[in-house]
Amino acid sequence: MSFIEVVQDGAVLINKADASGVYTRNIASCIAYAFYGENWLALVHDTGQLSVPSIIDTIGRFGAVRKAYSVQNPQMERKAQTRAHRERRKRMFGGLRIKENPIKIQTDSGDVCFTTDEEHGTNVHSFSESLSSIPDRERRLCINELNNLFSPRNAQSLPVDLQFVDGAYTSNPELLYSVKDMKRRADSELERGDHDYWLYLQKAHRLGIV
Predict the structure, then answer these.
(1) What are the C-alpha distances in Å from 127 to residues 9, 22, 43, 73, 138?
(2) The domain at 3-134+160-169 falls in which architecture?
């Protein structure tokens, strides 16, 4: 059976009938959380912009969490980001009524995978024949990148993109901002010397998103 992928600002939920496990890549200043419940496993890839109540609602609907892991990349994370993740985790675990601290994993590769048998690793290439890439990966990732980038700085207001549930991948999320508003913001940021906003819009145009 395959491993199900989750990308930035998303979550997946599986049971043993769905897949062997879950994985995510490109953990830099982000943090990943794995939650094990009664016969289910969830993985969240949180950039720090996800709404904590949205994470609580997404994971809480599946039942009580009996074990949790947090995954961070010590090579890429700054002290301020570590403090921010710690504060968010405290609120999240309180909302999910998780009393035990998470089991902490460090990933220098930026990758992590978890199995339904409660094994984990940071070398997803060892499972390369079993990895299932999320459908329409580049477009979905680009939509989430746009929603993240164009959100107010440190708003922590993004809804969780639940990417796999009930044995199937879900549809791509919607853009949270109009193309007109994003272009206006990109122009404003360009005047300040930040080219990233327009670069992401150009990428989205090439992918047929805007």
Answers:
(1) 23, 11, 17, 20, 21
(2) 2-Layer Sandwich (3.30)
